[in-house]
Each structure stands twice: as C-alpha cells, then as structure tokens.
C-alpha cells in the first residue's frame, strides 16, 4: 500500500455528531433495553465479528460511541485500524454495562461498517496502481454529516484526501469558467482575492484549455473526462512547459480503467467511487 496519513479528528470535533446520531436512534428512550435492565447494574461482554473480508476502519469512533453512553465501557480493538480482516475473525472486544452496550450497538456498528466498506474499496483501487507513481485522491462527493469520517476511511484505505471543503483550495470548474468568461479571466480574478498560500486548480477538457491554464500559471491542472490519447498529450504538454504543475485526472475512473489512466504519467487520479460505490463491510456484535 502506498503511504497515506489517516488522521482521526479530535473528539472535540466528533462528539456533537456522535451525540446527535445517538439521540436520533435512542429517541425518548430504548424501550426494549430499559424495560429489561436496570441502568448500569448488569455487566456484559461482547465481541465484534467480521462476516466478510475487508479493511477495518472506525473502531476508535465506535469506542467513543459506547464511552459517551457510559465512560466505564471497555472497548479493545483486536484489529488495528487499516488492517485486513477475514470472515469469522474477532475485530473488537467490549465489556461494561449491558444497557450501554445494547443502546450503542447500532450506531457504533453502522459507523464502523460504513467506514470499513469505504476503506476496503479504496484499497482495491489503490492496489490497481500500486506499481505506478500516480496516487488516488478522494472527492467532495460525500454523505452530508459524514465527510470528515468518510475521508478518514479513504486515507486508511491508502488514498490521499483532496480538499475537505470549499475553503481549502481553489478549484475552478467548468461552470466557474463559464461564469467568469474563460480560464484566464477566472484565474486572474481568483488570484487577486485568495489568501496565501492557497493553490489554484483548474478543470480542463481540451488541449486548448490546458494551454490557457499553463499560460496563467495554474498550480494544478485537472484533465477531466479526457480520452487516454488526449490525456497523454496533455501530460507531455504540461511537463514540457512547466514541470512544477501537478496533474490530476478525473472523470469516469473505474477499476478497469484506472491503471491505463495512471500510465499516462499523471500525478493524481481523483475518484468518488471508493465512497459513492462502496458497500458496507458486514460486522456483527455477539454477546457472551
């Protein structure tokens, strides 16, 4: 796996999200659990078991879900974040107040299964280009409210995070170009407004647009939905004129095409597929 850094945000950032998701599920109270058990009196143990092969992600988040319900719950990750698992393997062990384990089960599992599914598919894409210098990056096509965690999962799978939001960097896309009256005008106007050291990326669909982006010193040039032959020509054009410019390929990247795209010599391949097309990794909690 190529090097990537997956940094989980501090719980100062995540706790409000987790609390809201717990409130959504628990509502006015867990009718089943609270009818059967007295609060914090019955101690139980459980194991999380993988039911499919994949990459594990989200265990620290799951642990925090239980901790918010009861600080004394113990959550031991048997698998490291980003590790591979096989069906039947124990992923985590949990012990503590049984009411907290049962009330937190669904939220914690849902998050871990969603993030593990993303990490798993991301890793499949990354492995497809492991023999080439190009690196996979994610996109802003994320689930509202889950972006910060979904991008954490792609990094665990071996990808690199693209901008987290609109304030991270400038990306001049096709509609911006139309609104500004051309790539050159868009870059000039943006450069006069943005703070240092934000970078400027421009989306291009033709060699003419690539040339215009080069003339106005874009930092990153995206080759969007270009045929492979044109993409190769664009890469040569950019490398010849300005070696500092980074090149990104995007648009309809699949597991079948990603290697050929990487062979053109680009630096980055952006794809929403690891997030938008991933399936949840099936995990289950089994009480001892």
From TrEMBL:
The lineage of its organism: Bacteria, Bacillati, Cyanobacteriota, Cyanophyceae, Nostocales. It comes from Anabaena catenula FACHB-362. Residues 30-116 form the Quinolinate phosphoribosyl transferase N-terminal domain. It catalyses: nicotinate beta-D-ribonucleotide + CO2 + diphosphate = quinolinate + 5-phospho-alpha-D-ribose 1-diphosphate + 2 H(+). Keywords: Glycosyltransferase, Pyridine nucleotide biosynthesis, Transferase. This is nicotinate-nucleotide diphosphorylase (carboxylating). InterPro entries: Aldolase_TIM, NadC, NadC/ModD, Nicotinate_pribotase-like_C, Quinolinate_PRibosylTase_N_sf, Quinolinate_PRibosylTrfase_C, Quinolinate_PRibosylTrfase_N. Residues 118-286 form the Quinolinate phosphoribosyl transferase C-terminal domain. Belongs to the NadC/ModD family. It comes from the Bacteria. Pfam families: QRPTase_C, QRPTase_N. GO terms for molecular function: nicotinate-nucleotide diphosphorylase (carboxylating) activity. Its EC number is 2.4.2.19. Involved in the catabolism of quinolinic acid (QA). Pathway: Cofactor biosynthesis; NAD(+) biosynthesis; nicotinate D-ribonucleotide from quinolinate: step 1/1.
